[in-house]
Amino acid sequence: MTRIVYDPAQLRLEMEGHAGAGVYGQDPVCAALSMLGMTLEKRVSELAESCFPTLSRAPGRFLVVCRPEAGAEAQCREIFETVAAGLALLSEEKPEHVSFRREEDEDEEECQT
Fold first, then answer.
1. Which of 12, 19, 72, 110 could make a disulfide contact with 50, Cβ separation 3.0–4.6 Å?
2. Cβ-count burial of 60 within 10 angstroms (0-12 exposed, 13-18 middle, 19+ buried)?
3. Which domains, ranges and CATH numbers included, belong to the chain?
């Protein structure tokens, strides 16, 4: 199973594990996860001078964290949200292979109490 944790407050997305939906190297769920992760990596890398990404990728592990300057935060956040929406959808469609958790924003938690 691939476990995904997205923290919108920290602009941090981490994926860990293998989906296990097919033969290693031919797993369609893993391929979808990889493409979404590489899309995030590509887009924030294109904005490296303003998003300041930290990227880490290894077999079964993927991490992207951004510390954007004020003027680029909205654009960087939109990229993360778009990819996170795709990952969340994949976890809904393939819950036996993908777990997606969105960390709660502190502001949202305060509003709910």
1. 72
2. exposed
3. 2-112 (3.30.70.1490)
